[in-house]
Sequence to fold (673 residues):
Amino acid sequence: MKSIRHTLLLWLFLGLSAGMAVAAAVVYAQAREEANQIFDYQMKQLAASLPRQPFATLGPDRPGLPDIERDVVIQIWNGSGLLIYRSHEMPSLPQRAELGFTNVHAGDGAWRVYSALQGNTVVQVAQPLSARRQVAADTALKTVAPLLLLFPFLGTLIWVTVGGGLTPVKRVAAEVESRDANALTPIPDADLPQEIRPLTRALNNLLARLDHTLDVQRAFVADAAHELRTPLTALKLQIQLAERAADEAERKAAFGELKQGFERAIHVVQQLLTLARQEPGASTGAKQPVDLSALAREVLAELAAAAQAKRIDLGIQRDAKAVVSGDPDALRILLNNLIENAISYTPEGGKIDIVIDAGEDAAALDVQDNGPGIPPAELERVFDRFYRVPGTQAPGSGLGLSIVRQIAEAHGAEVTLENSGHGLRASVRFPLGRIFHESASGSAHSDFRLAPR
Amino acid sequence: MRLLLVEDDTMIGESVRKGLRQDGFTVDWVRDGRAGELALEDRVHDLVLLDLGLPARDGLDVLKSLRRKGNPVPVLIVTARDAVPDRVAGLNAGADDYLIKPFDLEELSARIHALLRRKSGRAETVVRHGALTLNPATHEAHLDGEALNLSAREFALLAALLEHPGVVLSVPQLEEKIYGWDDEVGSNTIEVYIHSLRKKLGAEFIRNVRGVGYMVPRLS
Fold:
């Protein structure tokens, strides 16, 4: 599991280490530069302080020479090139040297060599560069070492600060933890640091949406329970009447009504199930190309008997090749509900026309009946769950159009109802982009019509 | 006894009407609140069965306006709204009883009888008048302990007359009591029923007040 503290500490350690390494390198470079200057100056001074007169003899322990460090080698030649002095034997050094400063790579390391002409003698002072490096490294170490003390100090500081900074997170967590499933009130975030607010804000948005969804669901369950009570009441009464029946004819009639009652109860339950299945978020069938015209023919064939029972002339008036992307089962329910509604509300001997249009930007499916229509004030309300137009005699659950709208919305389509001329027209418009457009070969008049008998 | 049923569901309405008719009630059925209000204007019903979730006008509104107009007819609310606040609201709005769907026809009948008994100020369901006893719940009539064979209409007519002994009821008033809207009323059927009842109960049981109507005299 990731820990902000551990991550911060790790990066602090790495960052500080890198910083110290760089600082040490810089200090080392600067110190070496300074050491070079100082040692070079010393070497010059040393060379200058050596006697100008030729040495009388060559010997290691001559007094009067400056007290020099052991690793500094001094050699002096006279005008004729004869070595007249050597502080100590150092055969690796070149026996002749250019005047001025040079770096010499001898077998045992690099040397800084200074040669100067003093009168007619040549004085050479040599010092191994390692000595200078040593000084520079010492300086760098001394400068950087105290920084190591920062490690425990900064580490502790970060540990404590991060802990303190995360306290509000712990508080929010405890707040959320202590809730039961129904407490969906927003998390108070007034005194939270701004880094955490986006999280609580997102959480609060989610809670609000969840709360709304739950409210809708609760209302729906309450409505559904209430609506189920009506068909169940009817069933209970019908059963009692069947029990009371005095003779065979009465019993037969009572059972006939009981059967209708059952059919209604089953219908309501089926509609509720359909609605639940079409609920946004419920797993729906995969989208695939659906030919509206073919689908309409299938649904019409299924409903033909119901239409003929009422001597209703049901058919496709105008047809076009319109293929939309959708769930064929859901679209079949949509179409079925619209046409069933039309059959229910159209008087005997009426007419229902299906019109399918495929335009440039949309495909449309209209169901036009010549029934009584819907009062304008009710046109929008009929989509509400369980809502039925007052005085409606036709049986129904009040869910059909809710289902239609839900399916349409899932397909990005729009359902409208309007009283047009001689009845009600229900239109479903599938917008552009949802359509695999295949231009209709003219709007051919279809001969697909179920002739009333 | 003539009842007004206000119920928007066709199946429930039909079943209740049928069941209550079998129990000897005359039932008028309307399907929305406004029609219910109109029907109650006539004040011919002995009791109202009122659904609450009604089209056109909510049941509670119908009840409130009924009571505002001073109509004391017993009201039995029959509804699917079972929450306690709903029941309290219904009773406070002037309902006499509250029955929750789904219900038993027997219970509905029993509650209707209880309300009618309370309305007439009787302590028991059985109506007694001298040697005659009438049980509206079982539709049994006894004279001197002997069972009488009365038709449903005869029973209803007798019960109507016995409701207020000593009060004269006109023929149209009696017709209103025993016929619903759907019933065909013959021209002198009330007279036919009276005649038949007099045969079973004795000529003096029901008196004719000429030009006014009929009455069962108060017992001295």
Notes: The two ends of chain A are 76 Å apart (CA to CA). The helical segments of chain A are 4-49, 129-144, 150-177, 197-244, 248-278, 292-309, 328-345, 400-410. The CA atoms of residues 16 and 151 of chain A lie 8 Å apart. Chain A has three domains: 4-52+67-148, 197-278, 288-450.
